[in-house]
Structure formats: C-alpha cells, structure tokens
Fold this protein.
Amino acid sequence: MKVSLTAGSALLIVDLQNDFCEGGALPIPGCSSVVTTVNKYIDMFIKHRALIIASRDWHPPNHISFKTRGGPWPPHCIQGSKGAEFHPGLALPSNAIVVSKAYLPDREAYSAFDGTELHYVLSMNSVRRLFVAGVATEYCVKASVLDALKLGYEVFLLTDAIAGVSEEGSREALSEMLSSGAVLLTMEDIAG
Ligand code: VGL
Ligand code: ZN
C-alpha cells in the first residue's frame, strides 16, 4: 500500500523519553532502535512540511500509577527529571509541538489526547491523518490510536517505529488497533 503525505498529515511521536529507553526506570525493549527509525520519519515529515507532535509522560513525584501509591509502575517520567527528557538521540525539530500528559497526581492518562490540547491543536492545523510511532505499543500508543480513531482521524500506525513492554501485549494491541480501523504501515509504504 502506498500512502502520500498530503496536506493534513501529522506525525505523532509517543513518549520517546529516557525512562522508557535503555538505562531508564521503565525500559521498553527496542526503544533505541525506535528512536533511529523515528528520526527517518521526522526527516520525511519535515520535507513535506507536515506537523510533528511529540507527546511525553509527565508525572508528578506522587503519581497514582507509581508502585509507591499502589499502582503498576516504578516511578518514571517525573516532571523536570532527566528520565522525563526526550531521548538525546531523538532529532525533534525546534518547531515540534510537545504535548504533556498524565500530569495530575490522581489521574492516569495513557492517551496523548487525554487531558491535553492535542485534538484542538490538530484541528487548528487542519490535520486529519495521523501517523503514529513511539512507545509503548500496548499502553500509550494504543490508547492514543484508539482515541484518534474515535475522534475521526484517519490513523496510520508505523509498525517499524513502535515497541511494547511485552511481545504478547504488543500483538494483542496491534490486532485491537487494526480491528478499530487503524492502518498498519512501514516506511516503504510512504511515497517519497
Ligand atoms: C506508558 C507505562 C506507564 C507509555 C506510560 O508511555 O506507554 N507506559 N506510563
Ligand atoms: Zn507513565
């Protein structure tokens, strides 16, 4: 399948932060190679003058998702910490739009649309087709993709630029996104 980056296309890069990569608090296998591939997508989207959005997990130190509060995760992506910074190898352009999520102590938010201005920003820029990459496939990528579909976006999941916490979880998430209407693509599917 060949897809063109027509007007109204945007790249959504989900949570490529230090804590989700090697050496971080909640490392996701394959995160570094996702960074490398996402950089190639960034180049393509810059060439087409398409909007580039980077979401980030942005938790207060006492976030409800942390084990210290009975949640499932070790503390990660704490606001202002090194772990919350974007991976140093990620080549975000200076005009990329950063969307922070899950920033309230008592509220988890996996989706980049949840409690953020992402839908508003995309609408203001006439974006209708969203190309999604990043981590983790079965958490924040999946939640963002499903929300985008519900909001009426055409959603393309860049399967060569995502990584999940577990293989089985990723497989299930992929089939759920597919059956919800996401289109699965890799780099070769995008017309230069
Ligand atoms: C995520 C677990 C906890 C994600 C965020 O970005 O997918 N996963 N917080
Ligand atoms: Zn989190």
Notes: The longest helix spans residues 31-47.
